[in-house]
Design brief:
587 residues, alpha/beta, eight-stranded mixed sheet, four-stranded antiparallel sheet, 15 helices
Length: 587
């Protein structure tokens, strides 16, 4: 059905949810008045002369009724409820435990996602952008061009948000690129609008050692009016409301003395040496002229990040914080280490921290998308990953849709592959570079060995088909295979949290470090009047000169028995990156 101009009054008609019938439409109920003086009310209308009378026995001629031409922009809105795709989890043994129906007075928040307009044309444009030697090579789209050609139509978004409001809900946030809309309301309002009964599920924490938490779930299919379903991709997230209150103050003053002994963890200088970033530092390239985005849930302590940089002799400006949704009222160590290490690896880059209220899907999907949709950075990292097999497919697809926009704009997106030896989202998206884990050994400033990490998140995606650029792999993966690259995740990295500096592990460090490395490469390219490297995946898999710059990891295996070997492999991808090598070989 052709979509048209939204008639504001349509949503206000009583009984509109019960169906739109022909008899409900406006129709003319009288005959047009013949030309001549207007009749006087209450007086008979006489003919001007006898000759004006019709012949005896003949009926008066019927005046011609001229119907107005049909409005090509008008559309009948079909309110019939139909099944609607959702990203709301169902009970799952070992992950989501059903605790019963949610009270109707409880509060909710969630996200509605909209499809990219003319997605096929966008796919072709991206293929042209990353085809070396082609006429469109590295001619990235601007944010305004993407909006004009591929953003959901504003009138469609408005129609859906207006409907949500008629159901009693509010719409506090609409994404810059219009791919996502946040709504808030009560369980009762949601149940009535979508014809379901929400349930409370206890969710096992995806981060080891953390307590389980409650989420909303479903055991039945959502149903939205047909005209809503025709315009959206999915109801992609549904969560408990963001916490309210005030962020606690920052107590104490962290020490800026180096830990003793330093050898118990890896320093920024050791990591820069291990992945050959320091050779670019020596040439004066430290990320200046680039903008590096860090996506986090909740806040971080300024005292911690500043102390960490000072401790290791890193002089840099404070990041700019962009609050994407409700203000956070707590802080997470995950976001803190992401900011510390991404900024440490690119000391002269402008760091923009995109901060959501917490780590739930509503917050992380919206914040990840907003970091891309604003179109203001050349590299983005996120380490807030979740196992692909425990998140609904709509969640994976939304991360990938946002990543697709990033590729078109020339933004590199990196994500931690996770620490469970399985596949995580958003790293499973073909438009995201999944950063896996290795076990790095160093003697001072010298690398003495590196092999696959036992818990490196890796494997075959459940959601995405094998990309064209992975079809040359032997054996051919059944679907999108991860990881793409890998950095240390086993030997502890120093980081500062709540005033204490200690070593910790995980791919949560690997992704921000790799993003910082790419920011330094982009800064060096800008000084040569070259554009940013953009979406890396197609280039990594199709350019042998780029592949040869990686330190091939040929030993080790994961908990899922994926083994490292010569060339690309599942646990480590192409291996450990060399910053100078990427600068030298990426076209």
């Amino acid at each position: 059905m052709k979509r048209g101009v939204i008639l504001t009054g349509v949503l206000l008609l009583a009984g509109w949810l019960s169906g739109c019938r022909d008899s409900d439409r406006l129709a003319s109920v009288g005959k047009p008045r013949p030309p001549g003086p207007a009749p006087v009310e209450g007086a008979p209308t006489l003919p001007d002369s006898d000759t004006a009378r019709p012949p005896p026995g003949s009926p008066p001629p019927e005046p011609e009724v001229v119907e107005p031409p049909p409005d090509p922009e008008a559309e009948v809105l079909d309110p019939t409820p139909i099944p609607t795709t959702d990203g709301v989890p169902a009970p799952l043994p070992g992950v989501y435990t059903d605790k019963g129906e949610a009270p109707e007075t409880d509060l909710i928040r969630g996200l509605v996602s909209f499809p990219i307009r003319d997605e096929r044309a966008l796919e072709q444009r991206i293929a042209d952008i990353y085809k070396p030697g082609g006429s469109g090579f590295r001619k990235y789209m601007t944010q305004s061009e993407w909006m004009a050609k591929h953003a959901p139509r504003e009138k469609d978004v408005t129609l859906v948000t207006d409907w949500l409001k008629t159901q009693g809900m509010q719409v506090p946030f609409v994404a810059t690129n219009r791919l996502l809309v946040q709504f808030v309301g009560t369980v009762g309002q949601f149940n009535k609008a979508f014809g379901v009964k929400l349930r409370i599920l206890e969710r096992k924490s995806p981060q080891g050692g953390n307590d389980p938490h409650d989420v909303y779930g479903l055991t039945e299919t959502l149903k939205a009016p047909t005209f809503v379903q025709q315009r959206i991709h999915a109801l992609v997230a549904l969560d408990l409301p963001a916490e309210t209150g005030a962020m606690p103050g920052e107590f104490g003053q962290p020490s800026t003395d180096k830990p003793d002994p330093v050898s118990k963890g890896l320093t920024p200088q050791q990591v820069a040496r291990a992945y050959n970033v320091d050779s670019l530092y020596a040439q004066g390239h430290q990320g200046q002229g680039t903008k590096l985005g860090v996506v986090i849930g909740a806040g971080f302590r300024w005292k911690d990040v500043r102390a960490f940089w000072k401790m290791w002799g890193i002089e840099r400006e404070d990041p700019k914080v962009i609050q994407t949704m409700e203000p956070p009222v707590t802080r997470y160590r995950e976001g803190t280490l992401d900011v510390e290490w991404a900024a440490a690896m690119a000391p002269k880059a402008d760091v923009l921290v995109y901060m959501g209220p917490d780590a739930r899907n509503t917050s992380m999907l919206f914040t990840f998308n907003e970091a891309i949709g604003r179109g203001e950075v050349s590299v983005i990292t996120t380490s807030f990953a979740h196992r692909e097999d425990s998140e609904p497919r709509a969640v994976h697809e939304q991360y990938s849709a946002s990543g697709m926009m990033a590729a078109a704009l020339g933004i590199t997106v990196t994500a931690a592959s996770g620490d469970s030896a399985g596949v995580d989202t958003p790293g499973s998206s073909p438009y995201v570079t999944a950063v896996g884990g290795t076990q790095l050994k160093m003697n001072g400033m010298t690398v003495t060995g590196e092999k696959a990490w036992y818990y490196s998140g890796s494997g075959i995606s459940r959601s995405f088909t094998t990309p064209e650029w992975q079809k040359g792999l032997v054996p051919l993966p059944a679907k999108r295979a991860v990881v793409d690259v890998a950095l240390n995740a086993d030997t502890g990295y120093w980081y500062t949290w709540l005033g204490v500096t200690s070593p910790n592990t995980g791919t949560s460090f690997a992704s921000p470090i790799f993003a910082g490395l790419v920011a330094v490469v982009n800064g060096a390219r800008s000084e040569e009047a070259k554009p940013p490297v953009g979406w890396l995946n197609s280039q990594l898999y199709t350019l042998p000169t780029v592949q040869k710059t990686f330190r091939d990891i040929t030993e080790g295996y994961t908990d899922k028995q994926y083994e490292a070997g010569p060339g690309w492999d599942i646990p480590t991808g192409w291996g450990a990156p060399d910053a100078e090598g990427l600068l030298r070989t990426l076209p």
